[in-house]
Amino acid sequence: MTGSTEILRSKAPLRISFGGGATDVEPYRSLYGGCTLSTTIDKYAYVSCRPRKDKVIEVQSLDYNIVAKYDTAQPFVMDGELDLAKAVIAELKQKRASRGLDLFMHSDAPPGSGLGSSSTMVVALVSLFKEYYRRPFTSYEVAALAYHIERDVLGLKGGMQDQYSATFGGFNFIEYAGDKVIVNPLRLDAATLHELHYSLILCYTGRTRQSAGIIDHQMQNVEDGDRKAVHATHALKDLCVEMKNALLQGELASFGKLLHESWLQKKKIANRISNAHIDNLYAESRKLGAIGGKIVGAGGGGYLLLFVPFDRRHVIKKRLVELKAQPVDFNFDFDGVLTWRARV
Question: Could you say which of 3.90.550.10, 2.30.30.100, 3.30.230.10, 3.65.10.10 is the CATH number of the domain covering 6-187+333-343?
Answer without folding.
Answer: 3.30.230.10
